[in-house]
Amino acid sequence: xxxxxxxxxxxxxxxxxxxxxxxxxxxxxxxxxxxxxxxxxxxxxxxxxxxxxxxxxxxxxxxxxxxxxxxxxxxxxxxxxxxxxxxxxxxxxxxxxxxxxxxxxxxxxxxxxxxxxxxxxxxxxxxxxxxxxxxxxxxxxxxxxxxxxxxxxxxxxxxxxxxxxxxxxxxxxxxxxxxxxxxxxxxxxxxxxxxxxxxxxxxxxxxxxxxxxxxxxxxxxxxxxxxxxxxxxxxxxxxxxxxxxxxxxxxxxxxxxxxxxxxxxxxxxxxxxxxxxxxxxxxxxxxxxxxxxxxxxxxxxxxxxxxxxxxxxxxxx
Amino acid sequence: xxxxxxxxxxxxxxxxxxxxxxxxxxxxxxxxxxxxxxxxxxxxxxxxxxxxxxxxxxxxxxxxxxxxxxxxxxxxxxxxxxxxxxxxxxxxxxxxxxxxxxxxxxxxxxxxxxxxxxxxxxxxxxxxxxxxxxxxxxxxxxxxxxxxxxxxxxxxxxxxxxxxxxxxxxxxxxxxxxxxxxxxxxxxxxxxxxxxxxxxxxxxxxxxxxxxxxxxxxxxxxxxxxxxxxxxxxxxxxxxxxxxxxxxxxxxxxxxxxxxxxxxxxxxxxxxxxxxxxxxxxxxxxxxxxxxxxxxxxxxxxxxxxxxxxxxxxxxxxxxxxxxxxxxxxxxxx
Lengths: 317, 334
Hints:
- The structure holds two protein chains of two kinds.
- By secondary structure, chain A is of the alpha/beta class.
- Chain A has nine helices and twelve strands.
- Chain A has helices at residues 9-16, 20-27, 35-47, 81-92, 153-166, 182-197, 211-216, 231-243, 274-289, and strands spanning 65-70, 95-99, 115-119, 134-137, 147-151, 172-175, 207-208, 225-228, 253-255, 269-271, 298-301, 304-306.
- Chain A is elongated and about 85 Å long.
- Residues 53-60 of chain A have low confidence and may be disordered.
- Chain B folds into three domains: 7-53, 434 Repressor (Amino-terminal Domain) (Orthogonal Bundle); 60-163 and 293-320, Rossmann fold, CATH 3.40.50; 165-290, Response regulator (Rossmann fold).
């Protein structure tokens, strides 16, 4: 899938019995070709794997060749982004190759690649210098030869804490699942920042790795809200709470982060647009290819707070 | 250049009818605000050509640029430069700008500025920190797009463009760490405003990631509160480096270190923030994080254009990142 093919106009001409000029005119929407012939040519071209370029003429605009490294399909927040990017690239009439983590060792060796997109967490210090425009999606580094696009989890998590405070919560716990994602650190800083903005103290015992630690806290001191770093974590927490007869959100509020896999779950969360991230990655690369020499930056995408139904007001209790 | 996106493509993508898409894009109503935003958002991402919907008066628009007088006095030129970038970005788009300085009395008494009260303006830009109540009064009185630059308040219903303090300070702290420093302090008054708080957390992120301890005695305030006069008090023991929340504080820190017979970078390494130190020799030596004012001005004008032509109705908070400027205030230690 996504392999760039080398189909020539002659191949299509031979298969359809028309001239190369007619094939070219048919593919690029030029006049002088009947609808019948045009459809026949396009069909044969697509069958042979030739990518029709929309309204671009033959004589101009070279096709841009993207290498997409999709590294981290276990991170549900990043999967599907490569699919959206592929859709955008196809709509533009450009070409792509879909690669994986094992291909990163060959990064920079492909001479026919115009630009790269790397999706997921990786050791950006070991990657060779990028000779062509390259965008990293999913974490923020500081290399000056790469653009980074990240969901702004720091400010996003601070917003969740703020919403909890607006709902009357002062004892806010943090479920810290252990993993290596760089964005989790941003979420944690956002939690701390949210506490600080509202004059709430940082308490070590409010940060736990599992619900056993939560139950160990004295009932009078126990958090009235549990902040999770993802929606599936939030779902686990809600299930554990309900097993002990604790109702969410009436007794305890629970929040997640990013989108939820199960659309019915209705978890209070921050949502980031994958389409926005995908579109920005392509735009950054195509801008650089046409000559934009701005320095490489980190682009922090803002999220939208989804109130849903796992956040409750404790002011009335 | 791209194949033309049609209404039916958008209808397919959003799951509504073509008529609904058309009404949403033209702002004719008939759909909830949420759905309208979603349709417009998806149309933009797909590259739909909005020019037919742009109101003709987006060209030649007049913008009031308000700056608190305390931030733009002569010799205090950070915000003068920001104003210059705004005026330039505006002029490129054929917008006219009128600068009005807001004195603290006008601000304190929530008086509507003259340029705004004149009724001749199509949009407002506020550069620097103005009181929330003052801004709220303006928003309540006039229904104009309003973009704030270089400061933000989450409780305000308007657009904001600021430099990404969290990312910037993360970069400067990582720079120190990559040069071998493990004992790193922070200079900035965290309670002063949200920008400085964000910078503290960028510093903290870098330290936490590297497994380094943050020592409370090396977190130094740089302002007295509430007067906001600059003052840095050195503790008895010192770290090997300080990540400062502004070039201004770094320069003041330099003076205090000199009083103790210490110099930068031989004894202590220092990084700043802003890349803007007017009239100080130290400014030519400081390694710092650049604030890309030109880019911020462009973003602000983009938002203004989108708001005035109706292509966006929600408020945005845009963070602008930039690069580290390496000079000579950091020494590598083993």
